[in-house]
Fold:
Amino acid sequence: MSRQVSGPLETIGIGLHYEDLNVGMRFKTAARTITETDLVNFVNLTWLNEELFTNVEREGAAISGRVVPGALVYSFAEGLYGPAMNFTGLAFLNAELDVKGPTFVGDTIHVEIEVTELRLTSKGDRGLARTVNQVLKQDGSAVLTYNPLRMVKRRA
Structure:
């Protein structure tokens, strides 16, 4: 037996609007473990075929272990952050990115976010939000930081 619903359905899973944000606000994402399959797929997709990522037996390497590209860590961080901007994020405008340390296959990462700047655009139906995003490993060490400026919808 199906139920009839009158009127339009409300969409669930909508991200943060401009009005939901305050300078100084902090939150974090869910976590994700980076697997060998993630590394292989990312390297093949992006053609980042450096020995550092493709050769387990490299001699004299400065970093030992299955290190993953900073670009993969950044991409996963943006994916983890995605639910916060679902249906409300309009544009990614700018960021400075700093790789703080190596990330390896088997590491679990999450992102801690702090809102540092908010301003309305001239159109008035959207705003700009700058955050500082810090990607942390399971031991609490920072492996990557970046400060995206995003255009975000305002509430209707």
